[in-house]
Design goal:
mainly alpha; 237 residues
Length: 237
């Protein structure tokens, strides 16, 4: 005999649908950002004029770095105040500017090693993001450890700019891989928790937080890719 689904069952189903819709947006925006970054990086690497503009002048290069940091801070700190279209624009602007500074990847490494490492990165990202999505284990403790480790990696990287110590560079690289692998799982679980606080009826707000989630995973992916390239990438001769 047919029975109406229970209220609890409907609530669980609606929450599941809301989560799936939100995470679909997150991954779609992340992919869009990565594609834009790759396109701009490839375009810049093939243009002597753009390469000269970005890398021959320290003011331009470090100016772009400062702009990128500023965009992340603005997006993170003002998400509630900014409109969804503006957040979208700033995210795509950030992705494009990253393409300019990451053009060096196409100069230093062979195309085949970039493709291979990208595939490895995508596989690792997919595995850890899936784990963060399905696990019932609370990963907040892991996240705290990873953020402390990330702080140490950033400080060691800054110090090594002056020391130029190869051993320290490799230590930081391998630790960095572990950290970003852990952050992918933690950040994915955190995005699941964020989706629970969002109303599916407020499309604009969902889009804003989806883009912020995409930015978080984008940064995890890019940093993991760069660390793995340092390990596995074949440099041009």
């Amino acid at each position: 005999m047919f029975q109406q689904p229970s209220t609890n069952g409907l609530i669980v189903q609606q929450a599941s649908q809301r989560l799936q819709a939100y995470m679909t947006q997150v991954y779609a925006w992340m992919t869009s950002g990565l594609l834009l970054t790759a396109f701009i990086a490839g375009l810049t690497a093939r243009s002597p004029a753009l390469l000269n503009f970005v890398f021959s002048n320290e003011i331009t290069f470090y100016g772009l770095i400062i702009v990128q940091i500023g965009l992340v801070l603005v997006l993170s700190g003002l998400i509630r105040k900014l409109s969804a279209p503006l957040i979208t624009t700033l995210y795509m602007l950030y992705s494009a500017s990253m393409g300019l500074t990451l053009a060096s990847v196409f100069i230093f490494y062979t195309a085949s090693s970039i493709s291979t490492t990208f595939g490895v990165t995508a596989g690792m990202f997919g595995t850890m993001s899936l784990y963060g999505y399905v696990t019932r284990r609370n990963l907040s403790g892991l996240g705290s450890m990873m953020f402390m480790g990330l702080t140490g990696v950033l400080l060691a990287t800054l110090v090594n700019i002056w020391l130029k110590n190869t051993t320290l560079m490799w230590i930081v690289t391998y630790i960095g891989v572990v950290i970003f692998v852990g952050l992918i799982a933690y950040d994915t679980q955190k995005l699941k928790m964020i989706s629970e606080q969002l109303s599916s009826e407020d499309k604009s707000n969902v889009r804003k937080y989806a883009i912020m989630g995409a930015l978080t995973l984008y940064l995890d992916f890019i940093n993991l890719l760069l660390m793995l390239l340092r390990i596995f990438g074949n440099r041009r001769r």
